[in-house]
Amino acid sequence: MAFGKHNLEPQIVEEETDEENTEETDVVEKIENDDEKNIENIEKSTESISIQEGVAETNEDDEEEFEEVGYDDRDMPISYQATLKQHSRLVNTIHIDPAGSRMVTGGLDHEMRLWDFNSMDDTFRSFRTIKPFEGYGIVDAKFSLTGDRILVASSCQSAKMCDRDGHTICDYSKGDPYLRDKKNTKGHTHAIMAADWHPFDGNTFITSGMDSTVRIWDVENDKSQKSIIVIKGKAAKRPAVSAVAYKNDASVIASGSDDGTIRLWNAKGPFVVPIKNKMAHEADKYITSLSFSLDGNLLLSRSWDNTLKVWDMRNFNDPLFKYENLPNVFEKTCAMFSPDNKLFMTGTSAKKGSGESGRVIAYETTTGQVLNNIDLADGSVVKLYWHKRLNQIFAGSSGGSVAALYDKERSHKGVLCCVKRHFTSKIESFVSADKKVYAPNSLPLFKEQTPYSLKEKRAQERYNYAKSKRPELPNEAKTKGSKLGDAYTQHLVQMLRKEAYGDESDPRAALMKYAKMAEENPEFVAHAYKRTQPVALFETGEYTEFEVKRHKPE
User: Fold this and answer.
1) What DSSP letter does each residue of 423-436 carry, written as one string?
2) What does the alpha-carbon distance between residue 528 and residue 523 come to, in Å, rounded to a whole number?
């Protein structure tokens, strides 16, 4: 996907209002996209921008100044696009380590994926998939300043610290939801909605949640937070803190809640009353993103009221720029500054079933003019990340894909390394199981004894008395190779029995010894037959006629 240079021709319409005599300028921009071959001419949609009086007046002189010192859209790395499709649902967070070698993404599919640009090919597959919180979507996942740790926050009450390979280091404590005073809790009692690292202290990070608190944590202490800020709304309401951000010099903490209020806190405390408290957006609308500029003078705020506002920290009463009609239906829709602070951008949501796609809209910081308008095909644009070292823009969408925008001349490494590394499939040889395999060498006749098997065979033959031709070992217990048993004892017992009772191997001879004794002294069964059969009758082998008929087979 290639993007050509966009020529901006702003049309200005001036209208006078009563009482305050303010001037509102409606700028309608027609963005023509001409590629190198002049094949396609795409007319972009119009954008309405309301700019306050005295901040940015646009006339012919300003247009000439814009052409001379303005930001050139060709400097944006948007010439080519690569799509990383691995998540199955909305991508909430994208972050890359400072070296630009690894990327972490997370979404509502409960998965956190790790990507390695140095080993990934043009198929763009993550090398590791983790579910840090089973059943909970990933809200934020960010590398530390050194890139050796990953802060992971989900929609449950606990945050997690992982190493750069995704292995868990520690889980931070949850709070007791039954305690009314949130200052006495040791962790979040409701879902976490945002998390961020300290700008230069690698041992400190911050979280905010639906329990109306902002908590500052020490990395080494997983038992309780270091400090806590309790947000109190009007009429004793407890608004959910949906966005939180550190100023780049770590002097201010900005929090945005669902009552439409932006609160600025002194990062050193005490966290009792905010420095500034501004009703910035509509009530009952989540503030989905807060982002400070590089110099800390500007603050971006994005909300569910479909607006993007730019605030001057030196004059926090009214917004510097206000952009309306920017659809936003997701809790993590992002707004951010570029690494060089020359422009800022945000993503828009697409209406379900409308056939439209989300857009990435870039604005110039100094003039507030629309610089670029990029359509992305895969649903709404939720998360944006621009890495300074790689000079590549990553956009997470509601369809689960991550679009990587880059330029072959201005971008470095990152996705460029992957598109040059083509995937090669390995063809593995296989044998069909339906065919018979004849291997005559596996038969016992053709087998050759290997040195190892021959050694085992000889060791076994050594214990075989017949093959080794050696006498049996004496009957010594607990001796290797000795023959245990009582053969000699049995032999002595048998010899003594023969001497006492004689050889009884022939049963007939043993009975005949008692034949003469039975005739002389009939004391066994003779008394029973003394009257009925005094003379014993024995089998002679001869049969009478009656007995022959009885025994004749039928």
Assistant:
1) ----------TTS-
2) 10
**Closest to 160 (Cα-Cα) out of 146, 176, 174:** 174
Distance (Å, rounded) from C-alpha 396 to C-alpha 358? 10
CATH number for region 6-419: 2.130.10.10
Q: How far apart are CA 49 and CA 214, in angstroms?
A: 33
**261-266 sheet: strands from edge to edge:** 241-246, 252-257, 261-266, 276-279
At a CB cut-off of 8 Å and minimum separation 6, what does 519 contact?
Answer: none
User: 198, 206 in Cβ contact below 8 A?
Assistant: yes
Say if residue 507 is preceded by a cis peptide, omega within 30 of 0.
no
Task: Write the CA distances from 288 to 156, 205, 334, integer angstroms.
Answer: 18, 19, 7
DSSP string, 391-414: TEEEEEETTSEEEEEE-TTT--ST
Say whether pTM exceeds 0.70.
Answer: no
Identify the residue whose tokens are 């607006």: 307
Calpha distance 305→320 (Å, rounded)? 18
- Number of C-alpha atoms within 13 angstroms, CB side, residue 533? 7
**What pLDDT digit, counting tens, does each position of 200-218 carry?**
999 999 999 999 999 999 9
Which two structure tokens, joined as six digits, stand for 185? Answer: 């809790």
Whole-number Å distance between alpha carbons of 263 and 276: 6
Give me the residue label for tokens 């990070």.
205
Question: What does 106-174 look like in DSSP terms, one character per residue?
Answer: EETTS-EEEEETTT--TT---SEEE-SSTT--EEEEEE-SSSSEEEEEESSS-EEEEETTS-EEEEPPP
Kindly tell me if the per-residue pLDDT of 287 is higher than 80. yes
Q: Which pLDDT tens digit goes with each residue over 290-320?
A: 999 999 999 999 999 999 999 999 888 899 9
Give per-residue pLDDT as tens, 78-89. Answer: 889 999 999 999
Compute the chain's Rg from CA coordinates. 46
Beta strands in 282-434 (DSSP E): 287-292, 298-303, 308-312, 321-323, 335-337, 343-347, 359-364, 370-375, 381-387, 392-397, 401-406
DSSP E strand boundaries for 198-240: 204-209, 213-218, 227-230
